[in-house]
Structures are given as structure tokens and as C-alpha cells.
Amino acid sequence: MCFSQLEQLWEGNKSFQKLKFIELSHSQHLIKTPDFSGAPKLRRIILEGCTSLVKVHPSIGALKKLIFLNLEGCKNLKSFSSSIHLESLQTITLSGCSKLKKFPETEEASRDTGKYGEFEKLFLDDTGLRELPSSIEHLNGLVLLKLKNCKKLASLPESICKLTSLQTLTLSGCSELKKLPDDMGSLQCLVKLKANGTGIQEVPTSITLLTKLEVLSLAGCKGGNLSQGIWLYVCAHHQQKDCDRLFACSILLEKLNLSGCNLLEGALPSDLSSLSWLECLDLSRNSFITVPNLSRLPRLKGSYWNTARVFDLCQSFHQILKNYWPMIAHPWKPFQIHQVHMHGGTPDI
């Protein structure tokens, strides 16, 4: 019944014991959802693009069989269930619900399972959320959490660090977000952390405990000097050897994006060799001049730089050519570096 003219599916509490699936996507006149308590076997509810939808009936929180809920693009949605305890739920999509200011409280998992159902994916991009409830820790099966472009989100609860199954956390475009929780290192399964264009001023040192991290992107975080974050925090307060130890904790990192982060000369260590899995490095639109040594990054395929000293750059490539000459001489062994991009004005020689 997509693109229907319905304003409401049914009124009152009616029994639909066999109903398992509701899809009313792009029903522009739908104002509210019905009482779901008479349809206990519902498994999928898809109301994507119902732009007039203002309220979701609170009975949705009692649907124990529901596995998928999609309210993407319901831009006038203001009211959602005050709490949810959905035993089978796997995915909630609320992306584009720009007037939704609050996500419901999540109840603790049952003692029988010890886990909040199979809840894996939560899409909250482009919503009006100002905060997340501390009870989000109960979603301990969550694998993906997307909060992209939540312009009013000012903070994350420390309890988010108890999501020990979380693999992807996207915060890009959350311009009011100034800091990450201190205990980020507890997210032991985290693989991707994207926080481009946020107001983050520093990164907690516990990030060095994220040994599975493959993608770290903080492009455009200009709120402060990130030398107090990542490995730079250690470099600023301890010995250089401590900085190297910090890098050793990030050996699986494949993509690192710190473009436009106001990194100054001396902010980077001279040797990035501990990042041996790195494939893409973006340090463009910064204020440093000297290029770090890239000669021990065998997997590096692309790097992006601001204006750099040509001498330093040539020195790095001279070393690369020296190390990889056997590969060049034997074409069946691929030479890994495919792209180097320079951004900025005339090099300072």
C-alpha cells in the first residue's frame, strides 16, 4: 500500500493476530500509526517517507516479534515510544526525522538471554536529537550506530562505551559535538570511527586501546589542536618512544583522515612505519610543512598532502624507490603506491 492516500490505517484496538508486515511508504497523508497491540505477530513495519506522520503509537514498544522498523524521512515525526523493549528487533531506521528530539529509553535485557535481542543497527542520521539516553548501553548487540548530521547533538553518554559489539560509529557532521567519551577504548570491536566536521577538540587517549580500528576519520575538526589526541597527545606530554608505542597499538589502521585539522609543524612524528597496514592517508589542508617518512608503508596506495618541502618529499620517495626497486624490476610484483596528491600553494624549498 505504498503511496496510499490513507490518513490512518485503522482506529482503536483491533485484532489482527496473523498480520506480520505493514508497508505504507510515501503515504503522504498518513498522520499517525494505529494501536499495534492487536497485532502481536508484526515483524516488519515500513513507513519510509510518510512526511505527514507526527506520532507513532506507544504500543509499538510491546511488539516482541518485530525485527525491522523503518521511519526514514518522516520529517514531521515528533513523538516516538517513550521506551522500547523489543525482544527480536534487529534494525531501527529514523534517518531524516528532523523534528525527533528524543530517542526512547531502552530497557535492560532479559535475564534469560543476557542480550538485548539481536539488535544490530541503529540509523539516527539527520535527526533533531540533542542527546542519547544513558540506557543505550542495554543495546549490547549493536554493531552499527549512525548519527551523521545530527546538528543539535551536543554530547554522547559515557554509557555508550559499554556497547562492546559496536563496529561502526558515524558522527560526521555533528557540529555541536565537542568531545568523545573518555572510555572510548572499551569499544574493543570498533572498526570504523568517522567524525568528520564535528566540533571535537581532542581525542581521549584510550583510543589507543582500539586494536581493531581500521578507519579513523576526523577531517575538518578545527575546534582545537588535535595534538592532544590520538598519538599526538602522547607526543606532546611524553617521550618520542611513547609516541611510537602509541602507533604500535594502531597497526591495523587502513585509512586515516586528518585533513583540515589545523595540524602544525612538528605535530606529526617523523616515522609512520608502525602503521604498516595503512592504505590511504589524508593530511591535506593542514599547516605543517615537513612530510613524514613513508618508506615503510608497503600497503599505501594513496596519500593527500598540503604544501610540503619538496626536498623532504623527494627524500621520502627516494627511500621508497630504494626499498621497492626489486618490485619495479619484477613487474609481477605490484608497486603499491598509486597516488600522491598535493594541496596548497607553492612549495617552500
Automatic annotation (TrEMBL):
Task: Give the highest taxon in the source lineage.
Answer: Eukaryota
Q: Which Pfam families match?
A: LRR_1, LRR_13
Among InterPro entries, the record links this protein to: Leu-rich_rpt, LRR-SigEffector_domain, LRR_dom_sf, RPS4B/Roq1-like_LRR
Coiled-coil stretches are none
The keyword Membrane belongs to this UniProt entry's keyword annotation: no
- TM region positions: none
Which intervals hold domain Disease resistance protein RPS4B/Roq1-like leucine-rich repeats?
86-178
Q: Which UniProt keywords apply?
A: Plant defense
Name recorded for this polypeptide: TMV resistance protein N
**Source gene?**
N_156
